[in-house]
């Protein structure tokens, strides 16, 4: 049920006590084509796509059409989060479809129908995937597995990523398994479709690195692509390395305004998660326990975002009622108190755990007026909507970070069954 991060973004010096994670047992903008490049502080892997109605620039081909992934990419850009983008139709994607339908005055069925397809048609030019080159500055870092034992975690400097693969997966709102699927043998899917001249241009970095391209003829020379690996994993436990071209889900809404007033560490976190600074303001958020959703509304009571969440359990139920937001902690440390967990022996010692995306509350803690409860990220994004929590509301790290940019002390919070 609870633990405790400490640093708040609001001007209140609060002592946070947070719930823990299960140990796995305005209008948002879909593109940045109108934004001045010089104002964009995003990393080199940021999206660069056409506006609705514009023609997609010539790209290198994917090996197949990915309609479900394309749908997930568009919904994610519009702040109707499908959770992990994996090309599979599941609970989170259906919740995202329903959120889009609610926002567009369509019957909220959570299923694709003719009316929903027509409303999404203007985004048909947004590709399902794009090819990026992994920057050196993104690939550097200390990668090490996070132990399960809180005592061992407390000895670490940071609860960071276990591998570059995991870091890339969070950057592109997906899973390591999906990245491997999109990059068989460490090469972008579709690489073997390139002819010799196209392969050379690819090697020279002469392509716009996103989307799909006209069909090409297969070529053995595609094996010469930069970063193509004969070995399955490098020393950091990843099939990827700096300078390598890889295919990734074509997420957007990642424009980082250089003028935005953010502390450097939080700016770096948003950039690392592919979460832009331009987010709508939420006047009210409603967490529905039975639907496993968090819906955000603006001050006109219009739906502006939806997220699938994990919330509560039979031992630690979601605290139904109306609450306020007392503060937001960015990259918080974590005070582990065994007394607050029904499934942990009280004989265990209290621990102060370091911050990091693989910490019990992930990259952000949104503190609520209900003592010991909050909304936070997770170290296991694929479990959202499936696992149970210790009473708090848990989202993927990228969704929690995005929500943190939407809320303020005036945002009303409703928890309902």
Describe, in short, the structure shown.
With 417 residues, this protein is α+β, with helices and mostly antiparallel strands. The chain has helices at 67-77, 91-103, 114-120, 136-139, 150-153, 164-171, 176-182, 196-203, 264-272, 397-406; strands at residues 129-133, 245-249, 284-288, 293-297, 303-308, 310-311, 321-330, 334-336, 351-353, 364-368, 374-376, 393-394, 412-416.
Report the span from N to C terminus: 18 Å
The main β sheet shows up as: 9 strands, mixed
Measured on Cα atoms, how large is the radius of gyration? 21 Å
Compressed to H and E, one letter per element, the order equals: HHHEHHHHHEHEEEEEEEEEEHE
- The level of helicity is 10-25%
Q: Would you report the number of β strands?
A: 13
Classify the beta-strand content into a percent band. Answer: 5-15%
Structural class: alpha+beta
The poorly predicted ranges are 6-18, 20-35, 210-232
What characteristic shape results from the CA principal axes? globular
Mean pLDDT reading: 82
Spatial sequence of strands, sheet with the most strands: 5-4-3-13-7-10-11-12-6
Give the tally of structural domains: 2
Give a structural overview:
With 417 residues, the protein is of the alpha+beta class. It folds into 2 domains: 35-257, no CATH class; 284-416, L,D-transpeptidase catalytic domain-like. It has 10 helices and 13 strands. The protein has helices at 67-77, 91-103, 114-120, 136-139, 150-153, 164-171, 176-182, 196-203, 264-272, 397-406, and strands at residues 129-133, 245-249, 284-288, 293-297, 303-308, 310-311, 321-330, 334-336, 351-353, 364-368, 374-376, 393-394, 412-416. A 9-stranded mixed sheet has the order 5-4-3-13-7-10-11-12-6, sandwiched between helices. Strands 1-2 form a two-stranded antiparallel ribbon. Strand 4 (293-297) and strand 5 form a beta hairpin. The radius of gyration is 21 Å and the shape is globular.
